[in-house]
Amino acid sequence: MEQLPLKKWPKQVFGGFWIRFGAFLIDSLLVGAITKILLNLTVHHFVAPADATGHWWYTLIKLLILLAYFTGTMVYFKGQTVGKYLLNLKVINFKTGEADLKTLLVRELAGRTILHFLPIVAVTLVFTRHRQHLMDMLCDTVVINLKQVDYFNQAAQGHIVLPETAPTDAPEVTNPI
Predict the structure, then answer these.
(1) Residue 5 CB contacts under 8 Å (≥ 6 apart), including other chains
(2) What is the rounded distance in angstroms from the CA atom of residue 79 to the CA atom of residue 85?
(3) Which of 88, 111, 112, 175 is deepest in the core (most CB within 10 A)?
């Protein structure tokens, strides 16, 4: 059976706000740990943490570590970060269905920078059909839930009996209480 274009996939296939937020929290914990380690090994040898916190260059270093983590993992794992991998999410190009290098670089470098300073932009994914936030729309990307994609493909091929196609001669279940 020929696979349906992404635009015709059901909404459940696309990663929703809470699962994406969970992946972001996992990644944020990793970025926080990496940042602490790197800053303790370098900057904090020369400047006390309390003195460095208010400076623009300290914020810039932390942002660069965040961008390096997200961009590096997305490119290396072909559309997934550690958080996305653990929660079965993947970023793909909306038109081609693949995670290409150029799209991931633009999405992560520009998108993460914007989301770092304007995190409210991420809420837009709640209101769009394909659950895309602003940077997803600008880069023509979408986050898919790999488990839901597998389920959808199996259902489309007839390997899974959907509730609306289940036999009606099944005995009715009554509540024993």
Answers:
(1) none
(2) 9
(3) 111
Tokens 């900057």 sit on residue:
43
Interatomic CA distance for residues 133 and 127, integer angstroms: 9
Is residue 69 within 8 A of residue 24, CB to CB? The reply is no
Q: DSSP secondary structure string, 82-101?
A: HHHHHTTEEEEETTTSS--H
Measured CA to CA, the distance from residue 91 to residue 100 in angstroms comes to 10
Taking the C-alpha atoms of residue 73 and residue 123, their distance in angstroms, rounded to an integer, is 23
For the entire predicted model, the pTM comes to: 0.77
pLDDT in tens, 51-101: 667 778 888 888 999 999 999 999 999 999 999 999 999 999 888 888 888
Q: For residues 66 and 80, what is the distance between their CA atoms, to the nearest angstrom?
A: 15
Which residues touch 36 (CB under 8 Å, ≥6 apart)? none
- Other beta carbons within 10 angstroms of residue 74's beta carbon come to 23
Span between the terminal Cα atoms of the chain, in Å: 46
